[in-house]
Amino acid sequence: MSVKCSEVALWISVKKHLVMDKFKAETVKVPFGTKHLDAALCFPSSVTDVHTAVILTHGAGGDMNFKHLVSLAHALASDSFLCLRFTCKGLNMGYRVKAYRAVLDYLKSQQKFAIKHIFVGGRSMGCRAAAALARQLSDESEDAVQGVICLSFPLHPPGQKHVHQQRSEDLRGLPEHMSVLCVSGTEDNMCDRVLFEGMVKEMKAQVEVFWLKGGSHGLTVKGRPEESVLEEVNLHVISWMNKQAA
User: Fold this and answer.
1) How many domains does the chain have?
2) Mean pLDDT estimate for the chain
3) Rounded to 5 degrees, what angle do the CA atoms 62, 229, 151 make?
4) pTM for the model
């Protein structure tokens, strides 16, 4: 039986509306010194059910509207999690960590949500900043954040594997009670698999690693539709999040 293009388009449109009915989204401005950071909140339509939040940010390029982050934010919010993603264009790691902390403080100040558990994460440079913040916070309070989500952790620049120890210092410094999820592509030219798995063995935190077969640093897979890859990554993140909440 043949299916007309118009019927396929209608099915996709209906599916999107069904997903959107599960969550709400709003843009916000996060105070950061004398400036503001652009951010976006996605949360379940039933606000009273929100107890766990995830903060996400982008890599060295782009912004919070990077398709993978938006897709994951929507998936999380559709599954009873709050997701706050933000834009920080600075390439200095110290600056990024300070911005991340401002976003965390902003989330904690929101009276609208009864957040009990917070996870920090991002993609590439964004997850490096998240790991650095989580390490700083763990020195101050054991329950400041519950875990870190690393999408395409940049263990080293392309062809410069010698810096992997410096790049992974914050991950290796996370305490035993911290939970960490790493999602990386097997073809990521910024994350040698042998070096990464060796680093994981040195970590004290509770780590789970998901290798996306054929995945690049941008978590794209040659020959696979982007939506299919996004769905696979999102399902794995949500599955891991649900295990943390159990």
Assistant:
1) 1
2) 90
3) 50
4) 0.90
